[in-house]
């Protein structure tokens, strides 16, 4: 995983989306710009989101893109419903006439038996995906905390180095100034000696 605000969390792409179409996954905690659960991390595509969150789905029965038609419990319930339908129909014409269930179409009858199992499937799938998102979010949150701490330490270290460099530069400048002052002092001294010497040898006005 790429713990960076510059790259896709899953594939590392630097191309951030602006208009992800999440309509097929209305429960996904995914914004149009790929932001996941408000974190600095983002996904470049629905596939990258599904691939990553999917790793945290505990029960593979409820993976992304699994439908009720893949579900063994649903298939078994449909079989049971057909068996029941057969039983009802084998009751003969008289019972058929008075059988409320058989005023429904075959598919309506099956639906009345398995509809709630289908609804249940999507409810559980939605919960499983949400729990997977929460778990991923917790991992990412810890990673970001760690990264921020590291960044802070790195910033602190850089600051210390910078202060050190400034101090060294100031010290260098101070020494150069001292050297310059010393040079100037010597020059002044030499000039004074020279002037005194000249003064001594200058012809004095001569009073008669
Ligand atoms: Zn990606």
Give a verbal description of the structure:
With 208 residues, the protein is mostly helical. It has a domain of 111 residues. It is 62% helix and 0% strand. The protein is built from 4 helices and no strands. The chain is rod-shaped and about 165 Å long. The site of zinc ion (ZN) has 8 residues, from loops.
Task: Give the SSE map.
Elements: H1 46-54, H2 72-89, H3 92-98, H4 106-201
The site of zinc ion (ZN) has 8 residues, from loops.
Give the distance, in angstroms, between the N- and C-terminal Cα atoms. 107 Å
Helix content: 55-70%
Rounded mean pLDDT is 90
Q: Give a quick account of the main beta sheet: strands, pairing sense, barrel closure.
A: none
- How large is the count of helical segments? 4
List the bound ligands: zinc ion
Shape label: rod-shaped
Instruction: Write down the Rg.
Output: 42 Å
Q: Encode the helix/strand succession as letters.
A: HHHH
Percent of residues in β-strands: under 5%
Poorly predicted ranges (pLDDT <50, ≥5 residues)? Answer: none
Total number of β-strand segments?
0
Quickly give the structural class.
Answer: mainly alpha
């Amino acid at each position: 995983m790429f713990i960076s605000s510059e790259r896709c969390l899953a594939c590392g792409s630097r191309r951030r989306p602006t208009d992800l179409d999440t309509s097929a996954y209305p429960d996904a905690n995914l914004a149009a710009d790929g932001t996941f659960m408000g974190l600095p991390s983002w996904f470049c595509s629905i596939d990258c989101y599904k691939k990553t969150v999917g790793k945290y789905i505990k029960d593979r029965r409820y993976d992304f893109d699994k439908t009720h038609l893949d579900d063994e419990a649903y298939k078994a319930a449909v079989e049971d419903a057909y068996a029941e339908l057969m039983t009802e129909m084998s009751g003969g014409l008289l019972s058929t006439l008075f059988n409320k269930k058989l005023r429904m179409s075959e598919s309506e009858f099956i639906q009345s038996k398995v509809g709630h199992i289908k609804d249940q499937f999507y409810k559980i799938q939605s919960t499983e995906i949400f729990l997977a998102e929460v778990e991923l979010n917790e991992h990412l949150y810890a990673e970001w905390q760690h990264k921020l701490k590291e960044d802070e330490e790195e910033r602190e270290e850089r600051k210390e180095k910078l202060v050190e460099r400034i101090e060294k530069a100031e010290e260098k400048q101070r020494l150069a100034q001292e050297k310059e002052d010393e040079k100037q002092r010597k020059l002044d001294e030499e000039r004074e000696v020279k002037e005194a010497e000249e003064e001594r040898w200058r012809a004095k006005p001569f009073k008669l």
